Structure formats: C-alpha cells, structure tokens
Amino acid sequence: MRAAFCVWLFAAAVAAAQDLSFVACPIVRDTKTVPCFLAEYQGETYFLGIQQDITAAFHPPQLKHEVLVEGRIKEGPRVCGGIPLAPLSISVVKEVNPACNTLLPAEPGIEAPPAPRGAGPSSHPLAEPAPPANETLTGRQEFTVRYAFNDDYVEFGSIAVVRRAAAYATKIGASAVKVTGYCATTLLSNGGRLVEKAGLAEKRAQDIATLLRGSGVAAVTADWNKDAEPGDGKTDASRRRVTIEVIP
User: Exposed/middle/buried for 124, CB within 10 Å: 0-12, 13-18, 19+?
Assistant: First the structure.
C-alpha cells in the first residue's frame, strides 16, 4: 500500500511539473464577477485567466480565434473549473475560426479568482508596472521586451521596459544602445512545430529602436537575427523578444 502511495505521489509531481504547448479554441465561462477564460487539450480543461484591463499580465484571447497556450501545470486546486498554468503565455492566432465560440454559463461553486481591479473602465489613470524593488542599475545593462507568437505588438507592460531602458540610457549618457530582435519556433506538445513569420525579428527591432529614439535616446542601433531560434517546448515564449543593451 505504501509503495503504491509513493508511486501515486511521484506521478502527481511529474504531472504538476509538465510543460504544455498547444493550440485550441478559448472557452469563456461566465461567473458572478468577471469572465474566466479556459482551453481544452486532450480531454482536460486548463485555466488561462480572467477578464481585466490592459495593466494585467494576462490579456484575454478573442473568440472566433484559436489561441496558442504555452505553460506549465501548476500544483493546487482548479480555478474556474480548469487546471492552472504558471508561467503562462497566450498568443491569439490571427486567422478567424468561427468554431471558436463557446460560452459557458455561470455555475454554483465555480467562481473567478479575485481581481485587483475590475474589468470595466476606471476613473484612475493606468499605472505602469513598477520596476523591481530596490533596483539599482550601474554599468552595462540589458532589458528584454517579450512578444506573443507571430506578433510585433508592444503590450502595456513592455512599454514600461522600454521606458526604463530609455531612462537609464539618458541618465548615464550611454555611448551606445544596441537593439536586437529575435523570432522563434514553438515546439507543440503533440510534436508539431510553429515558426514565426519571416521579417518579424526586423520589425520588432526597428519598432523598439524607434520608440527609444522618440524618447530622446541617442546612439541607437538596430540589428536582428533572420533565422528563427529552435523550440524546446519549455522556453519558447521567452525566445520571442527584443533585447536593449545599454552601454556606458
């Protein structure tokens, strides 16, 4: 009995640490507070996030579009009826899929987690994410802007990264600011591969360089890797990026 229990614990631990990468239709579940977003894969339901404003790390996917889900199964109870994933990256597939239109009604006992701020408009100005506590920057520094798959849109949180880089470059009178763009491959859990479109690394790099120059930063150069970095099914989301290297 004890051996069987130990085997069960080991299997549960392995499952909890499992990395997943799949494409599915998002599912919207209504609750008494805010909508929850879910996705199904291989007969299981996973929790993606809740409806909030643009300051939140999670941006809800769109119905009538599939979504690329990249995350790691998190230990703990289900949320909104789905297994939570953390860390988690969500990328909306651009092509329209009318079949992705599932809305589930609110059910007793299934509630959304509390939100720091509701989904509706606010009379307060949006606050950018704060820099890391007690951050003291000196010398050469690198800042990283992340992207959704196949996208060059700079999200709200990433704008704060660009502004931190610009402020630091201005503060130290940087001799050079090197911007480098990357694109990547995503390895799906079913063995498939998704490769970002050609030219995306250049577009990402040029856009960030333009933002920096618009912030008054001099000596900005932009470069990019034309070839997509390989995928491993674990760190693929972190490879979709632009790095900003500030050199004193």
Answer: exposed
